[in-house]
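re: that chain from earlier
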Amino acid sequence: MLVDTHCHVHFNAYKDDMDDVIKRTLAKGVLMVTVGTQSTTSANGIALAEKYDGIYAAVGL
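^ sequence. v structure.
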């Protein structure tokens, strides 16, 4: 098992292919901790963690 312990997959850089990136990463067996840096990005990270098994959110303000 691999875990990416600090990613920002919910940031705008991935807005065009975020779901595809997530599905490919999880299909390879890599879990992710997506890190928020403010209230909006933290909320987006929580939403992804609720949507996908294998994504966990770290909240930052």
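Strands lie at 2-7, 30-35, 55-58.
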